Amino acid sequence: MSAVPAPPTAPPKPTWDPKQLEPPYPWLRPTIRIRLTLLYGGMFLIAGILLLSIIYMLAAQALHVGSELPFKVVSGQVSSDLCNLSGEGSSPAAVNAAMNTCVNHQRQQALDTLLNRSLLALVGLSVIAFAFGYAMAGRVLSPLGRITRTARRVAGTDLSRRIELDGPDDELKELADTFDDMLDRLERAFTAQQRFVGNASHELRTPLAINRTLLEVHLSDPEAPPELQQLGKTLLATNERSEQLVEGLLLLARSDNQIIERKPVDLAEVATRALDQTRAEAEQKGVEIREEIVPAVVQGNGVLLERIALNLVQNAVRYNVREEGWVEVTTELQPGQALLVVSNTGPVVPAYEIDNLFEPFRRLRTERTGSDKGVGLGLSIARSVARAHGGRIIAEPREGGGLVMRVTLPV
């Protein structure tokens, strides 16, 4: 028995996208080219009509259209109040010559008057045309200014901004819609990345805490052999380093966001706390601490700002010279901004290596290698926190070795 063939399936319905639907008459679409063409063509037409009207009125006024002639015939003789005609007994040739001179003189006066007034009218119309053109150009190009302002806000790590441009469906609206779509994708990508880092860091916290507890319990056993004690200390140091890395990743993921809740924070207090936490380490390494701290209040998150100062001071102490090293911390209040400057002696840093120091897991002349000086996230966290507060951090090589770190924050 032969199988019954299955009925043919209907073809899939095409999806309809209104953005991809072309109008029946593309040349009637209100594009920027058509709008500018109509605008400038209309301006030229209106200016031409006004100029012709003014020239016509000036010409009519100069030629005295409808007024009396400059001479008249009285009792068979030609007389004039404007022209110097010959008196009685003059020959017809002399009268005709005098009349011709009078008419030519009146014509020259009319042309001179017409020229002068036409120039004045041209200057006036030019001023009006430039002013009107400037105003209309600003109106037409105002969406570009809106796009530029939004792009600047996005450059300040505020990916929630959108242009949402209204108006005719022209090239500028297409650009704004494309820019908004790109921002949507970027925001989703950054959010997913931060969520992944946060979740992974949270998941790693629990086993690391359990490992630390177990190691501390075994190290507290007085009967443990020395080899096991040494192994436990090594594993505990490795576990502590992993915990620092996880905490750094969590703080880095959080500091990449814009700070919403801001409170007054004194950079002097922040710098003092950072110095208190690193003073013991500096004394152990023989590094002199210098400070010139004055009150400088900014708006931000105190915990994150303290992390900036602590990371910079710790790096300045750890990456220093072995003898006669020093670290100098200063705060300063300037018009519209506050400064936190951390300077230190240390190895010579080439200028081309400065940008690499702010990358995660990057150190001077080493990359992703083990070190007892940190996990390689300190400067990355400091830069992210500064950006989240609307500020910036700049590193400059110091003459003779070391760095000068300048943190600028808006007040």
Automatic annotation (TrEMBL):
Residue ranges constituting the HAMP domain according to the UniProt record: 138-191
SUPFAM superfamilies reported in the protein's UniProt record: ATPase domain of HSP90 chaperone/DNA topoisomerase II/histidine kinase (SSF55874), HAMP domain-like (SSF158472), Homodimeric domain of signal transducing histidine kinase (SSF47384)
Topological type in the membrane: Multi-pass membrane protein
Pfam families in UniProt: HAMP, HATPase_c, HisKA
Catalysed transformations (reactions): ATP + protein L-histidine = ADP + protein N-phospho-L-histidine
Upper lineage: Bacteria, Bacillati, Actinomycetota, Actinomycetes, Kitasatosporales
Subcellular location: Cell membrane; Membrane
Gene3D superfamilies reported in the protein's UniProt record: 1.10.287.130, 6.10.340.10, Histidine kinase-like ATPase, C-terminal domain
Domain of life: Bacteria
PANTHER family: SENSOR HISTIDINE KINASE CUSS (PTHR45436:SF15), SENSOR HISTIDINE KINASE YKOH (PTHR45436)
UniProt cross-references to CDD domains, sorted A to Z: HAMP, HATPase, HisKA
Molecular function via GO: kinase activity
Protein name: histidine kinase
